[in-house]
Amino acid sequence: LEEIPRPIQDSGNILKQGYLEKRSREPSFFGSEWHKRWCVLTQRNFLYYANEKSKQPKGSFPIERYQAHLDPQLRKDSRKKCCFQLLCPGKRSYEFTAPSPAEAQDWVEQIRFLLRDLSSLTIPCDEDEEDEEEEELSKDRDSSDSMNNSQNSTLNPEEPELEGEDIYEVMPGELPNSQ
């Protein structure tokens, strides 16, 4: 079996990572309902692992359309100000406890920032990509014009232009090729 590459290794794709306590879906009769998990927020997904060195996530979900908010009602103990929740209509909700109230706030802010970015109508692109797009557009324009001035595009810049070529200027009132 080939191992699936872990997103956790792609540090350029990771927006935030760290230990959080995640509430399990079914509270266990024998153990705690909160489990420490290594959590990773990427540009598209939220993943959680048993620990920092785990190769396979215990779970993951696309973060798009989720909402993040602090929720002190999730716990009754001293860590209630460290709790936040991820909700999405029609999908499973996730409840977490961060190591501190400030860390919980940071997770919520990072997720909200990402969600705003994902829901924006414009897709940011690098300047290099814009330049490439402009070059392609000008190539398209050049190729559509090439029927009219094919000789012009093949002339060597050092060579003087020869008279009688198909390079001409249309004067007002004149029709092209009415020589």
From TrEMBL:
Residues 124-179 are annotated as: Disordered. Keywords: Cell membrane, Cytoplasm, Membrane, Nucleus, Phosphoprotein. It holds the Pfam family PH. One of its GO terms (cellular component) is nucleus. Transmembrane segments: none annotated. SUPFAM superfamilies: PH domain-like. Residues 13-116 form the PH domain. This is SKAP1 protein.
